[in-house]
Amino acid sequence: MGKELVGKCKRLPLAIIILGGLLLLKSKNVLVWDNVLKTLDWRDRCEVLALSYHDMPSYLKPCFLYLGLFPEDAVIRSNKLKMLWIAEGFTELYKHDKMTAEEIAEFYLEELYQRSMIQVVSKKSYGGFRTCGIKSFRIHDLLKDLAIAEGIEFNFLTIHRGTLLLPTESNSSPKAPRRLAIQSPLQHNQTQFDSPKLRSLLCFYVGQEYQFRNLLPIVDRLKLLRVIDLNNVTLEQLPKQIGTLIFLRFLGLNNTGLKRLPESVGDLFNLLTLDVRTDGELRKLKVPPSVWKLKKLRHLYVDQYIAPQLIELPNIQILNGIPAGDWIANCLGTGLIPRKLPLKDLNRLFLLALVGRLERLPDVTGFPTQLMKLTLCASKLDQDPMPVLGQLQSLESLKLLKDSYTGDQMFCPPSSFPKLKFFMLREIPLSEWELEDRAMISLKRLFIYGCNNLTMLPEGLKHTDDFQELELVDMPSQFLNRVDENGGEDFHKIHRSILIIKVVAEEDS
């Protein structure tokens, strides 16, 4: 029967893959498989794709249709998509008392993967509650066409590709689409949106000529918006009326050129995700203190122009780009025993990225107990941070970036970093690194960038259980020669289960 099913796919590889994903989730008996044979219209090779969608549980269908909003061949980052799903309320369709919204979103993504509805581009080798560890993925053109067709039929979405596809005669009717994806430049007169039932506005077009000069018409007309994602769109200003969008849950404004957010952002009491990062030479965006009023906020991505006080965000899970400074130093005090970080009591915080001078760390009791990912940059630590950080029992990813540590020696005590899977060292003056017995025993990936004083890998690296990947960038020739498979003195430390070694040597003068 399996051979007959494959034969019905008429040699369309995607149909075979989708059929396999569909049958994988069904009982392996003759009656079930025979029903699949009888149900499909095998004259249409794409019928199996539609069957796979209609066979989905009700909670998963909107997640699949949502993929139709993304441009053709787009590489979709799973973290952002999951935040959008949460903002849209999709995770509320699956009732589970012991799972967070983020865990449910990850469960959805894994099920789409198991059904072969998405194609993985890159995966993470760490991630805590993440099960399939997908970092980014694509959706096949035929499946994307299916998501668009089904989405338009049920007024789930519409897409702007040169022509605005919003209804023109009855914008307030029940058939008005709920989500608009802009994938090409808007004409000036097309910025006047008149669909009050619109829930989500997403922009995917990137171009210097593309800008919203004034968001006020949107804010005035679209009071039910849950999602605004205008990343890489030039904005002159964000009107203070943004605070009237009381249903807004996701606000993506990174790389918009905005200079500041209005104080009224603090009135968005349902906001779950705020992303105002900037890349390259763009001006950093100033965030007002009112952001700390957002008690429901779960994911915050910012830059250096922010003045945090004692954090009072009970639901926060991601603090990315928060600047270190006096607000931390004052809490740590000047005594011999460092006190706790002001983030200690954020029980749900699993990702923290601190930028700026820190100088010293608190003891291990000063960190959030559930912290899984930690990034330090420009911290200017003069004492070895590893004895403290190695005691963080939940830590799975650690990045020590440029100027995070100014010392030249690093010592990881026995059995430290028990769950660490990913470790990055970047542009620090380290010359000696030791791993004691069973330290970093779970390490899978090690990235070392521009650490020109480091002479060798630690001997303890050979004792890791599942080491997979070593990436070296801008490292001196002496170091590279030691890991060479042809007689390198350090090769025995990495040869057991290494999959990939990426080496980019610095140019010799």
From TrEMBL:
Keyword terms, alphabetized: Plant defense, Repeat
Domain Disease resistance R13L4/SHOC-2-like LRR residue range list: 213-320
A Pfam cross-reference name: LRR_14
Any one GO BP annotation for this protein: plant-type hypersensitive response
Alphabetized InterPro entries for the sequence: Apaf_helical (IPR042197), Disease_R_plants (IPR044974), LRR_dom_sf (IPR032675), LRR_R13L4/SHOC2-like (IPR055414), P-loop_NTPase (IPR027417), WH-like_DNA-bd_sf (IPR036388), WHD_DRP (IPR058922)
Residue span(s) of domain Disease resistance protein winged helix: 69-147
PANTHER family: DISEASE RESISTANCE PROTEIN RP (PTHR23155), DISEASE RESISTANCE RPP8-LIKE PROTEIN 3-RELATED (PTHR23155:SF1185)
Protein name per Swiss-Prot or TrEMBL: Disease resistance protein RPP8
